[in-house]
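Service request form, structural biology core

Requester: graduate student, group of Dr. S.
Request type: structure prediction, single chain
Budget code: on file
Notes: please return the result as structure tokens.

Sequence provided:
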Amino acid sequence: MYRLVGLVALVVMAAVFVACGSSGETSEPTQVQANPTSVSGYSAISSAVADAVNCVGVLAPIEGDLKLFTDPLTSTVSASKPQIQSMCSAMYDTGEPGREFLSVVLMQFKSDDSSSDQYQLMKSAYSDTGDALSELNNADEGLTDVLSVLIDSDGIGRTMVMRQREWLVTVTAGPTMADSPWKVGDMEMIGKGVLERVK
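Core staff response, request fulfilled:
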């Protein structure tokens, strides 16, 4: 559980809400293949309704060394981010430092504009780190904006941010993409599946 709390704090509170001060370059937008590419990807995709308050149903149950943890986070961020209506996390984790993990954070905002502002804030923060970044930004509000950031340091492999209307979901895998059983296509399909099932 300590790893869950630490990673949520690192991935969500730091990377999501804190804009970095240095400048970086952004790659050209690219389309990421939205199909699971591994057995782990298929296994993580739940068919249950995703509960936006506590993240039950966001990820499928799992067996083996990995355990599924879910946490409500709304009360944690409500004072500093009143535009967030609900926020929760679901995570596969072994509880051992340096081992593989998959973290999903689901946020519902009080308006489409608020979710768009948060998406742009996250994009700006990641752009400033100089990490490899690609984006698919849709003009149609009914479609999903996708931001993908390859980090591969400090125990985090890749983070993907997906936004559709008032909903925003992040999917993070690690400790590196080489050591992660979840590939890029897995991560995007997991995130988009959550957005489809939360409505």
